[in-house]
């Protein structure tokens, strides 16, 4: 524990950045988190639409395999931050649904962003702040946002961003080149509310042989608003890349048609429709190094892409980055840089 802990700037308030920030704050570090979004969560996102419609348009659910993450999930379960989604998840191919092997699937309550909100509680998070530059000076790291506002100096900088965005921020540090080698695929998401319930005997499906890769009845997840039949459709990586620059208005009808074809159903009237493009959705560094750390520069890099992708990987990567910083700070912090 430090009197007034070393100062840390965490860029990115997704699960990785927040897991890192939370652990550091719990060790007495003086942490500031920056995110360009309106709220924390990054790709664990929930869009709410009046009246009573909610859509997890990014991460759909998560699993917990590593004991460290399983412990965190167990604590969130007790506190009601997450719940198990008991929905029936199938593989859908040629209109035929086959059950997938059962496994605990967890979701944030009342939306996927609940985990990030819980991690962010009591942390200093500067929202709507896109960090344009971060530079190491003799005094420490200086962070400059796109409006020209500065913050710092910080003893440590944590880049908790999708790989291509980490590459942009960190250049010319050698970690930028490493991040640039990890491509991430895009994903078009369509958010739908039907006026009447869509009659299919399952709640989520991995779709094969279709522009779609995943569809889920969002309203089947625990703690979602009752009443409306809300669905999230995800297009596959190839289709999303081919249609990357299409407008949402062009994407929605194409994926609605694909949904009807995949289910073999006439869809009920649509009461709400929207599309969201994730430019960076999934991707993983095959070397799976969990975190990158340069003690001399006081620089850590974390994110799902360093730990196998997905929510669990993001959490483990952020926690590992915090561990490296805590150990380094117990050494000669003042000489870093
Ligand atoms: C469509 C989709 C479906 C998915 N499905 C699943 C699933 O079912 N299960 C699962 O486990 N995982 C899933 N994932 C992956 C999961 O969402 C991610 O692995 C995880 O949320 C990544 O967390 P992160 O903190 O590494 O990155 P992010 O969540 O991307 O966080 C990075 C943050 O950095 C911010 N940022 C970026 N640039 C800047 C900047 N210059 N300045 C300030 N802030 C910046 C962003 O706003 C963002 O909040 C899915 C992802 C998508 C997009």
TrEMBL record:
The record, for InterPro entries, names: Amino_oxidase (IPR002937), FAD/NAD-bd_sf (IPR036188)
Provide the coiled-coil residue spans.
none
Q: Which GO terms describe its molecular function?
A: oxidoreductase activity
Identify the residues that the record assigns to the Amine oxidase domain, covering every copy: 107-325
What Gene3D superfamilies does the database record attribute to this sequence?
Answer: 3.90.660.10, FAD/NAD(P)-binding domain
The record's PANTHER family line, in alphabetical order, gives:
FAD/NAD(P)-BINDING OXIDOREDUCTASE FAMILY PROTEIN, FAD_NAD(P)-BINDING OXIDOREDUCTASE FAMILY PROTEIN
Q: What is this protein called?
A: Protoporphyrinogen oxidase
Q: What species is this protein from?
A: Urbifossiella limnaea
